[in-house]
Structures are given as C-alpha cells and as structure tokens.
Design a protein that fits this description.
This protein has 127 residues and is α+β, with helices and mostly antiparallel strands. It folds into two domains: 4-46; 57-125, Histidine-containing Protein, Chain: A. 64% of the residues lie in helices and 18% in strands. The protein is built from five helices and three strands; from the N terminus they run H-H-H-H-E-E-H-E. It has helices at residues 4-46, 48-54, 60-73, 76-79, 100-112, and strands spanning 81-87, 90-97, 118-125. The chain has a three-stranded mixed beta sheet. Strand 1 (81-87) and strand 2 form a beta hairpin. The protein is rod-shaped and about 90 Å long.
Length: 127
C-alpha cells in the first residue's frame, strides 16, 4: 500500500540528491578539466625557450627547414626522392636521384647553407 505523503517526499528527496550529485560530478569534471588545461599551458609556456632554441639560426631544425624549403623551390629533377636530416650541424642526404649531376647539385646546395658543418651523401643513383 502506498503512503502518499511519505513516499512522495522520499522520491523528491532522492531525486534532489541525485541531481545534486550529478551537478557536483559536473563541477568536479570542470575542475579536473581546468586543472588539465592549466597544466598543459604551464608545460607549453615552459617549453617556449626550447622552441626558440630550435628556431635559432644555425640550429639543426633551422638547417633542415632551410634545405627542405630549397627542395620545394627547386625543380623536382634535382631533389627527386632525396631526404634531409641534420644532427649537430651535419647534414645527411639519403634517398635516390636520377643523375649524378642531381646528386652533386643537392650536395652543393647543402654545403652552401649557413650553419652546415659537413654533408654526408648517402644518395643512391637510380636511373
């Protein structure tokens, strides 16, 4: 048998409790999300000095970017399938080229790039 006043009050109280817990859960998720965003921003801001160092003239990233820009601007015949990697100012060219002249031209461009200490040529001639 149902008690109208008591059961209704119990259901209302239970509903309000569930709603309060749901809202508290949402607030908790927002707090956790805010903390995660804050942590990500802190890491990003602290990493800015690293990004500045990587973009500095003569750094490995700068040299590789400069050479890849040269690749995009040059005719595809010269660079063909030549890959560029830089470590401590040493540029390594690898991949394939159609002619020895193309290989020589790629090595010459790499050597003339500012900040390059030496060039390692691992490009394979593939006619």
């Amino acid at each position: 048998m149902r008690r109208v006043g008591v059961d209704d009050q119990f259901e209302v109280t239970a509903l309000r409790t569930r709603q309060a817990l749901f809202i508290k859960g949402i607030k908790m998720k927002k707090t956790i999300f805010s903390l995660a965003i804050s942590a990500a921003l802190a890491v990003a801001i602290s990493g800015c000095s690293t990004v500045d160092a990587a973009n500095k003239w003569g750094s490995d990233a700068w040299i590789t970017t400069k050479l890849k820009t040269e690749q995009m601007g040059a005719s595809p015949a010269i660079w063909g399938d030549i890959n560029v990697e830089t470590k401590d100012g040493v540029v390594q060219l690898s991949g394939f080229a159609k002619t020895q002249a193309d290989i020589n031209k790629a090595v010459e461009i790499a050597r003339k790039t500012d900040g390059v200490k030496s060039v390692v040529n691992n490009v394979i001639l593939r006619p």
